[in-house]
Description:
alpha/beta, four-stranded parallel β-sheet, three-stranded antiparallel β-sheet, 9 strands
Amino acid sequence: MQGSQKQAEITAGLAPRTQGTGAGVAARARGSCCTNMRRCLILLHAVAVAAKSCDESRLVSRPDYAERLLRAAIQCNATSRIEPSAAVANLAVAGTGSQTLADALQAWRGVVGNRRARPAGVPRLPRRRLLLGEAVRRGGARITARATAHRLISHHDHRITVDHLLRTTKRWSTALDTFGEPQEKIDVFLLTLRDPVRRFQSGWRYRPDFRYDTLENLLREWRKRLGDGPRPAFPDGLASSFRRLNTAVNQYFATPQLSYLVGSACACRRGEVRLRVLCTESLRHDLPALAAELGARASHRHSNLRTTRRPRRNATATVSAKTAAWLRDMYREDVALHKYYCL
C-alpha cells in the first residue's frame, strides 16, 4: 500500500480538517492533480507560508490538536537514512520497551555506569568509558564499543516530551526545567510504540494492584468513573483521571503515546525534525537495524521481560474483548499511530 493511501486509511473516521487552514491547503496540494505549473507553485507557496506561520502554543489549545498531531507524526516519518551529523534523542514511553531503547543508546555512546544522560543533552560524567573493541554485559545484552559520528541523547524519564526538548509551547514543568536549555538542536526523535491494551498489561505486570484482583476489574472501575461523558481532554486528561484511582499501576502507562510528541506538529510541517518509530513487537529486529544505521555494533535484548516472571501477574493481566475495545477507543490516536507504523 502506498504511503499516502495508508495515511488516508489510518486517519479515516477522524474529524475533518478545518477548511482554509494550512493543513487543508497541504491536503489539497497533495491530493489534487495540478493542471499547470502556475497552480502548483501557488499551492506550494501557500503550504510553505502556512508551515512557517505555524504556532504550536496556539495549536495545543485547540480541541482537534490530537488529530493534527497524529497527522504530523505520520508526515514526520524518517524514511531516509539518518545523517551522520544528526542529533538523535529517545522518548521514554512507558510500557513499550523504552528501557531497552535507552539502554541501547547509552551503550552505543560507549558509557558504562549507573548515572543516566541528562534529557536536555549533555550527559553526566560516567564512571568509565568503554575502550574501542571492549565488550561488556549491560541490560542482558553483549555490547561492543564502537565510535559513532551521531550525537546520541539517552534518557529514561517518562515525563520528557518533544516539547521539553524543543521548547515550543512553554508547557514544561518547573521540575524538568532544571535540566536547562538543550545544548544542541535535535534532528531525529526515536519513539517506541505498542498496542494500548498490551501496554496496560505490561503496566500491570510491572506493578499490579491486587486490591482490584485483576487488570480487568481495575479498567472496569476506571470506565465506571469516567461514565458516558466525553473523553478526557488530550494530552493530559486520561493520565490525570487514571491517577485519581489511586492505584499502584503507574499513571505513565495511561499517558497517551501520542502525547510524547506534543510540541512537534509545527516542527514536522517545517521539516525541522523527523521521527523514527520502533515497534515493540519487532524490537528484536528494529534495534539491530537502528544500530547498523547509526554506525554502532550491538546485539541488544529486551531489558525488561515481564512475561516470563511472576505467573500470578501474568494470569491477572488478561482483559475481556469488550474492555479491550473500550480501551482502544479511549486511545484511538495511539491505535492509529501504531497501525500506521507497526501493522
